[in-house]
Structures are given as C-alpha cells and as structure tokens.
Amino acid sequence: NSFLQELHKNLVYFNTIQINKIYIQKRLL
Fold first, then answer.
1. Percentage of residues in the chain with pLDDT exceeding 70?
2. Alpha helices (H) in 1-29, listed in sequence order
3. How far apart are the first and last CA of the chain?
4. CA 14 to chain centroid
5. Is the entire prediction scored with pTM above 0.90?
6. What torsion, rounded to 10 degrees, do the Cα atoms 7, 10, 11, 14 define?
7. Is the model's pLDDT at 12 over the cut of 90?
8. Which domain holds residue 13?
C-alpha cells in the first residue's frame, strides 16, 4: 500500500523532528 508507506514516512519524519527538538533543548540547558 503506497498510502501506508506515505503514512509511515510521515511518522518517521515527525518522530525525527521531535527527537531533534528534545536533543536541542537538552543541549541548551
């Protein structure tokens, strides 16, 4: 299913952004 593949890519992308935000916040503390 291309729909599921797109959804999965979006979730991975979103998770990567969230992890980066947390990492940056911890670095700034």
1. 100
2. 2-28
3. 43
4. 3
5. no
6. -160
7. yes
8. 1-28
